[in-house]
Amino acid sequence: MMLWRRSSDEGDDEWADLISVGDCLDVGPDNLLAAGNYADDLGTLPILQTTQRYVDTMHDLDALINKDRDLDHHRPEYQIIVDCNALSVDIDDEILTVHNFIRDNYRYKFPELESLVLHPIDYARLVKKIGNETDLTLVDLEGLVPSAMILVISITASTTGGKPLSEEVLRKTIDACDRALALDSSKTKVLDFLEGRMGFVAPNLSAVVGSAILLAGIQLGRRRGYRDEIRKTIEKWQELPPAKRAKLLPVPDCKPAKKKRGGRRLRKMKQRYAMTDERKKTNRMKFGVPEE
Q1: DSSP per residue over the chain, as a string?
Q2: Could you give the CA distance from residue 183 to residue 94 in angstroms, rounded to a whole number?
Q3: Residues sharing a CB contact under 8 Å with residue 169, sequence separation 6 or more, in sequence order
Q4: CA dihedral 95, 97, 102, 104 (to 10 degrees)
Q5: Which positions ≥6 away from 282 have C-beta within 8 Å?
Q6: Contact between residue 125 and residue 182 where contact means Cβ atoms under 8 Å apart
Q7: Residue 246: pLDDT above 50?
Q8: Could you name the CATH architecture of 42-201?
Q9: For the whole prediction, is pTM greater than 0.70?
Q10: Per-residue model confidence as pLDDT tens digits over 227-242
Q11: Is pLDDT above 50 for 2?
Q12: How far is CA 265 from CA 109, 114, 142, 257, 271, in A?
């Protein structure tokens, strides 16, 4: 296979050359490392779990996970909440990086899987469960994805053109799956903690939106005025519009009608139907004199 590549430099005309890439494209899964197409080693990827900020935040989180007290913006607990919020974003970025590593390696075994399962954690669970197995009827995927998706994955795997991975590549891919699942577990713990503490940090928003996890003994009745206001506004919107009242007829006016101003059109109409001078003379009668 040949590939055209174009480039341009200052003062030089555009040039094109042919590069043969057939050797690079026909690389099997066993010689990926030698060809340089295999994804980087898992150890070269950034490891969030080994950073001091991650270790300290998770340690403080475990210490506060069962505590229930009001927060002060100047106390360490409020700072832990801020750190957890930032850590959740870093965990998402780390999961995406590990997912790209898993996908780049496992596409040689099951290239269609990445288009069928888009969620990184579901993809990692399936890769860890399937491994190098070619017959997915022997693999129990129940509980990992919906039943309809299991059928689609099994049918697609029976017609895939992928080849089994080497032991080294498979081991590194499974290790990456374990790292992704561990990050997801840490993210769940962080989000559960933040969700429980939202009653202190943002009581009005928590009351409006609701929270799946609320700490016992939280009294927010005196701080829920905004919720009542929104509820009344929504109820007002749902009320039926007022009934349309019938318009009463005006009281008849017994006074004579006022003269209304005419115009040129009215004057011309009067002239058209007015009595002529000859008609006036014909109708003229003298008193005491018989008509001729």
Answers
A1: -EEEEEE--TTS--EEEEEE-HHHHS--GGGHHHHT-SPPPGGGS--GGGSHHHHHHHHHHHHHTT------TTSHHHHHHHHHHHHHHHHHHHHHHHHHHHHHHHTTT-TTHHHH--SHHHHHHHHHHHTT-S-GGGS--BTTB-HHHHHHHHHHHHT----PPPHHHHHHHHHHHHHHHHHHHHHHHHHHHHHHHHHHH-HHHHHHH--S---TT---GGG-HHHHHHHHHHHHHHSPPPPPPPPPPPPPP-SPPPPPP--HHHHHHHHHHSPPHHHHHHT---TT----
A2: 8
A3: 29, 32, 33, 38, 105
A4: 150
A5: none
A6: no
A7: yes
A8: Orthogonal Bundle (1.10)
A9: no
A10: 778 888 888 888 878 8
A11: no
A12: 95, 84, 91, 21, 10
Model pLDDT, residue 199: 67
- CA-closest candidate to residue 129, choices 149, 145, 114, 115: 145
- Please tell me the predicted confidence (pLDDT) of residue 38: 47
Minimal CA–CA distance to 106: which of 81, 87, 92, 125?
A: 125
95-147 per-position pLDDT tens digit: 999 999 999 999 899 999 988 888 999 999 999 999 888 888 888 888 888 88
Domain(s) labelled CATH 1.10.287.4070 in the chain stretch across 42-201
Here the tokens at position 90 are 């870093």
CA distance 230 to 208: 8
